[in-house]
């Protein structure tokens, strides 16, 4: 993994924390539906970021980064729902929501930069 690619690093670290949180939810609460949705969307953010790195064109890059943004929005939703339904505690929720919001800001800025190049 490239050390200077901050979104690649952050999305991977977020995915790893998401896997650990998913395991905690399943073990402690025996909750399988909402947590699986959360796991899928949260790990998809980084997977799509990886695809942007191998994009064949700027259009392909923008498409993949936009998918990452949508997956991060969905993840934010699942985190709020898991928190408000008491499947995850306040500290875990706060940490993960803050990380997710940081990823959303970074991806949003990347999208703006790419779109402004095409204007």
Describe the fold and architecture.
By secondary structure, this protein is mainly alpha-helical. The protein has 4 helices and no strands. The longest helix has 28 residues, at 90-117. It starts with 5 loop residues before the first helix and ends with a helix. The relative contact order is 0.16. The model has no long low-confidence stretch (mean pLDDT 95).
Jot down its keywords.
mainly alpha; 119 residues
Structural class: mainly alpha
Q: Helix-strand pattern, N to C?
A: HHHH
Distance between the termini: 32 Å
> What is the approximate shape?
elongated
Q: How confident is the prediction overall: mean pLDDT? A: 95
Total helix count? 4
What does the radius of gyration come to? 15 Å
Low-confidence stretches: none
* Main pleated sheet: none
Q: Into which percentage range does the β-strand content fall?
A: under 5%
Share of helical residues: over 70%
Q: Would you count the extended β strands for me? A: 0
Topology:
Blueprint: H1 6-29, H2 33-53, H3 58-84, H4 90-117
Helix pairs in contact: 1-2, 1-4, 2-3, 3-4
Structure summary:
The chain has 119 residues and is mostly helical. The chain contains four helices and no strands.
């Amino acid at each position: 993994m490239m050390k200077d690619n901050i979104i690649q690093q952050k999305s991977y670290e977020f995915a790893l924390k998401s896997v650990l949180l998913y395991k905690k939810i399943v073990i402690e609460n025996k909750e399988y539906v909402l947590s699986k949705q959360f796991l899928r969307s949260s790990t998809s953010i980084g997977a799509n970021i990886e695809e942007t790195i191998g994009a064949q064109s700027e259009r392909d890059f923008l498409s993949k980064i936009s998918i990452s943004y949508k997956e991060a929005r969905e993840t934010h939703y699942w985190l709020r729902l898991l928190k408000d339904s008491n499947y995850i505690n306040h500290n875990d929720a706060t940490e993960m929501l803050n990380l997710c919001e940081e990823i959303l800001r970074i991806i949003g800025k990347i999208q703006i930069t790419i779109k402004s190049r095409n204007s």
